[in-house]
Amino acid sequence: MVAACETADVRLGGIFQRRYTPMLGVIRDAVTEGRFGTLSVASAHVPWWRDDDYYEDAWQGTRELDGGGALINQSIHAVDAIQWLAGAGMDLAPGVNPVAEVFAFTDTRAHEGDHIEVEDTAVATLRYRDGTLGQILAATSMFPGSEMEFRIAGRDGTAETRGGGLSTWRFRKERASDADVRARFGPEGDGGDAPVPLEAANYRAFLDARATGERFALDHSEARKAVEIVEAIYESATANAPVSLSE
């Protein structure tokens, strides 16, 4: 697809709408500003549940049409979001993946039999290019299911999210604006007026870039990063060995 678009001089972009969540934008700004200090951990958890009926007589869970299971289907947006957040603090050339290496296990734990051909559970350990460590949990096997979580933490601060809210926002050096961030994105907050739907903001940014001729922030080289991580996780799980991502 990338090669075809380049040959035909067609602009190609990706849809990773979680990048347009105001809460994640605030976290990314804090990473860029160095507020967490040297990052220690950047992790994403998708502890979801899907009934057997979800996979019955459907394309979901088939190797041919789904390409994989809980990781590539339900969790790829979380994969993109966490690498986008962690990568904000790294000085990388365009297109270079912030994840350097993965080691992973995948299995089918809760949907045996004829319901599913692919994994319903995946766990991966990540090593980012700056030395930050992380984990990805991708599951549709955890009844009754819980909310997506992100965690960014380092020597000087921690941010944790659960669902659409911010559960932790703490820094060694507090700012006056931190109380406002906790109020806006905490349990009683309004979420910072997130676009509804989030995809609309993603589409609008693409169309604006097309109209102005500027580079789209989610062009093919950027959108490809999450796919590269997912592919590396599957390769690692199959080989039972660490897999490095090329620069």
Structural class: alpha+beta
Q: Which spans have pLDDT < 50 for at least 5 consecutive residues?
A: none
Rounded to an integer in angstroms, the radius of gyration calculated over CA atoms is: 18 Å
What's the β-strand tally?
A: 8
Distance between the termini: 21 Å
**Mean of all residue-level pLDDT scores:** 94
Across the major sheet, the strand order is 7-6-5-1-4-3-2-8
Described by strand count, sense and barrel closure, the largest sheet is: 8 strands, mixed
Number of helices: 9
**CATH fold name:** Dihydrodipicolinate Reductase, domain 2
Per CATH, the architecture is 2-Layer Sandwich
What percentage of amino acids are in beta strands?
15-25%
The succession of helices and strands, N to C, reads HHEHHHHEEEEEEHHHE
Name given to the CATH homologous superfamily: Dihydrodipicolinate Reductase, domain 2
Q: What proportion of the residues is helical, as a percent range? A: 25-40%
Overall tally of domains = 1
